[in-house]
Every structure is written in C-alpha cells, then in structure tokens.
Amino acid sequence: MCSVSNKAAAIDGVRSLLQRNLLVLAEERLLYLLEQTPDDPQLMRLLFGIYFKIGDFFVAIDVGRRLVEQEPRDAPSWHQLSQSFLRTGQRESAWDAALQFQELCGKLCGNRSAALPLLIDNYERNNQLDEAEELLSEMSTAEGMKEAKLYFAARLLVQRKKYDEAIEMIAKGQVVSENNKHQMTEYYYLLCKANDRLGNYDAAWDAATNAHKVSQTPWDQAKFNKIHAEAQSFFTREMLQSLSTATSHEEQPILICGNPRSGTSLLEQILSMHPEIDSGGELSATSLMESRAPRVTDSYHGWPMCLLDMKSSDADALADIYVRARRCVNPDCIRVTNKSLVLQEQLGFLSLVFPAAKAIDLRRHPLDNCVSCYTTSIGSVGHHYTHSLEDMGRTWVTRRKLRNYWQETLDMPILELQYEQLVADQENQTRRLLEFLGVAWEPKCLDFHRSKRVPVTISYDQVNKKMYTSSCGRWKRYEKHLGPLIDIFSEGGYL
Length: 495
Known about the structure:
It is a single chain. By secondary structure, the protein is mainly alpha-helical. Among the domains are: 142-215, Alpha Horseshoe (Serine Threonine Protein Phosphatase 5, Tetratricopeptide repeat), CATH 1.25.40.10; 221-491, Rossmann fold (3-Layer(aba) Sandwich). The chain has helices at 4-19, 23-36, 41-53, 57-70, 75-87, 91-109, 116-125, 129-138, 146-159, 163-176, 181-198, 201-214, 221-234, 237-242, 264-272, 285-296, 312-329, 343-353, 366-374, 389-409, 419-424, 426-437, 483-491; strands at 254-257, 278-279, 336-338, 358-363, 414-418. The protein has a 5-stranded parallel sheet with strand order 2-3-1-4-5, with helices on both faces. The longest helix is centred in the C-terminal third of the chain and has 21 residues, at 389-409. The protein is globular.
C-alpha cells in the first residue's frame, strides 16, 4: 500500500505527465497505482479524465460509473459521465446523469440552473430542438450564463437552418466571449457552417481560418513522419513472419482505418446495425498494449524492438488488455469496431496479437477530406496539423503511404472501401462489407439512421440522417483556397 506522501508524489507525477499531454504514460501509471490502492477516488477521477480526453468513452463510462458509486455527490463526475454516455449514443443514461448533476447543483451550491447548459447540450445533440429551446428560455443571463445562452442560441439557430439569424447571434456572442479562446473558436466554426449553408464560401473559409488562428497549436511534422517510417522499417514481411503470434483466435476486432472526416462514423454506424457487430468508437487499448509491451515481454528493448522477445503467451497477455477494454462496450460480442486513429500505425503489431482481426481501409477524395477537416473543430481536439494546409496535406500523404504499405505487407485481410462509392451505392457496398467480415446479410444496415444509439461525434448531425451524396465534390466550392493542398496531392499522384 502507498503511504500518503508517496501517493501525493505519485499523483504529482501523473499530473506532470498530463500537463505534457503524455496521456498513455499517465494512464499506465494510474493503472499501476490503482493496483496498489484499488478504487481510490482521486486516482479514478484522473483516469476518468484521461479516457474522456482521448475519446475512449466506453472505458470512460466504466471508470465513471465506479467512481460515482463511491462518490455519489461528485458533481463534476456526473457531468462528465453524462457527456460520455451522450458520445456513445446512450441517450437515456446521458439524461439520467445530467439530472443527477442538476440535483447536485441544487444541493451543493443552491443553483440548479447551473446544469442547464448540460441539459440543453443533451437535447440539441439529439435533435430535440423544441425541448432545448424551452430550457434555453429558462436560462437567465443574470446568473453568469450570458456566454452560454448566446452560444446555445446560435447553435440552435444553425440546427433550425435559420442561418442569417444565426450569424447575427454569433456576432453578439463573439463580443461577449472575446476573451474566451475556446468559445471564440467554436463561434468561428459555427459561422463557417452557417455561411457554407448559405453559399457564402469565401466567408465560410475566412471563418474557418480565423478559428485556426485562435486555436493555433504547434505541429511536429518531422516527428509524425518518423513514427510512420519506423513502423515500415520494423514491420517488414520477413520480420512479421519471424515474430510470435497469439494463440487465441476468438476475438475478431474490426479495425476501421481512415482519416478524420473520411466517413468512419458513418461506416461504424452501418455495421453496428448488424446483430453480430457492435461499435466501440475509438478504443485506446492498443496504445496501452504498445506501452506495456516491453514489460509484458520482459525485454530490455523499447518499442517496437521488444517484440523480438515476445512469446505466444506474451501476445495472448497483450490481447487480454484489449479484450478487457472491449468488454466495456459489449461483454459478449467478439466483433466490435474500433476507429481509433492510431490503428493505422499499429496494424503490423495488431496482426500478431489478433490473428482473426480484419481491417477496413476507408478512403475519401483527399481534397474533400481536407476541406471537411479544415472547416470543423477537430483542430481544437488534438488534430493540430489541420491548422496549416501544408501540414494537413503532408499528414494525409504520410498516412496514405503507410496504409498502402500495410496492404502490400500484411496477411491480415484488409478491405479497401471508397467513401464516395459507399454513399452512391449503399446496398452493394454494404453487402460487400458484410461478406468481407464473414457475417450474413442484414437489411437493417441500410437503415443505420434509425439506430436508437447514435454516437455523438462531430458528425452527430449527419449520421442520424439517410445516406446523402452532397458532401462529395464539396472541395470545388473552395478550390481557389486550396492551392497548397492541390500542389501536394498532384505531386504525389493522388489527384
């Protein structure tokens, strides 16, 4: 057991890792500490925050549930739990957690209205606009909520397709929020969306550009390229054939590899309608597997050289880390999708620990893909390469080269799927998908928009609608702004 002083020092160390955005190392350290002091609320609260930040919401829910069972008066955890449920499409649970948060706001600080932003967010993201507007009318600007009221009013106007009114509301909100960097960024993206819908494409592009200026964060392109080059250098066909593999063949993860805004949420939603498949979102367990590999293999080497010392039993142990996380999604389903972006770097490793895994390489027109990335708020949630057209283009090319390499090198079955073909020929492409995955045809997959569990991602207002093709060729509206991207993609032969 840790002493009080040792625990305090350990927590300070974890917080130092978090400040440097070393989330996987912080996660591993917290899991180790929790082995010493199981279910410690302070440690679990930090772990909950990590899983939420990296978007691994199913595992976040597992931690959050255990946390509020121990600390039922922990209002911030109820708030975060509601958001986690919301982002996995568990609407009723999200609402129940939001009501718990509201009740605690009343009990602990005498201000139930502090929960209104969370309740409105729940309604708006589930397209319950009348209910959201009713609550918005109850929000008093005198209670320090003027910023929130203006912001949600603008969001609702965009959802109602009242774009001119939304633009006016955004202007009012920006005056009030001029010192709030995060809020200003969100306003600019809303402004971009409203102008795009009105056909004011230059104004939309200017709004997106301003959003990137406000939230500008450095991006290390050389480091990114090095990680991908090292994956190709180590995981050669000869090396893969010489390394040990897991003995268990039961788990059959479906690994969705694609850039952000390439249709991964849509694809996952289609597949989740099949009774033998469930959606896992962005399961982060593969990063923990990579981090723990040197210790599991008892190797003096770091990653990936430690795999030279991996035995079949070690591969099984690493697979077990993933299975434990998958059970947070569905304890009984062995076919669970994972669309974590890091999978693209890890397919070589995953082919060793999951012999029955299958991957889907989802591709979208590079200019459409990049325009979608540039005009949505993914830059403010870790995708810092989107702040620069040049960085975004080079990052796209680096990822494409690695995915091409896996296609040529791995024995793992990989299906190449074109987004444009999926939206234009939904039934035939869905049949092709299900045949590749080895499951029977399921007509419900064509009605993905009817799912009662629509994960709330940046695409939440898209995946709950019927299939549409209007996003194909969208780049042409912004062609005059895309010179750096066109040069990069033309030079590489991608256009």
